[in-house]
């Protein structure tokens, strides 16, 4: 019976999950993967400034107006 070993293992796992789930990194990875940042109407890239203001937008400034 070695309960201390179990405790340490689960703590280590929790730490690595937390560090891999940084929200800023996730957003950047999605932009680089092209999952968002492209206009669904014309297919052009949405300006980074616009995405910063409206992270959920699917339309570029041209199509949204
Ligand atoms: Zn567009």
From TrEMBL:
<feature type="compositionally biased region" description="Polar residues">
    <location>
        <begin position="1"/>
        <end position="18"/>
    </location>
</feature>
<dbReference type="Pfam" id="PF01258">
    <property type="entry name" value="zf-dskA_traR"/>
</dbReference>
<keyword id="KW-0479">Metal-binding</keyword>
<dbReference type="InterPro" id="IPR000962">
    <property type="entry name" value="Znf_DskA_TraR"/>
</dbReference>
<keyword id="KW-0862">Zinc</keyword>
<protein>
    <recommendedName>
        <fullName>Zinc finger DksA/TraR C4-type domain-containing protein</fullName>
    </recommendedName>
</protein>
<dbReference type="GO" id="GO:0008270">
    <property type="term" value="F:zinc ion binding"/>
</dbReference>
<keyword id="KW-0863">Zinc-finger</keyword>
<feature type="region of interest" description="Disordered">
    <location>
        <begin position="1"/>
        <end position="24"/>
    </location>
</feature>
<feature type="domain" description="Zinc finger DksA/TraR C4-type">
    <location>
        <begin position="34"/>
        <end position="65"/>
    </location>
</feature>
<feature type="zinc finger region" description="dksA C4-type">
    <location>
        <begin position="39"/>
        <end position="63"/>
    </location>
</feature>
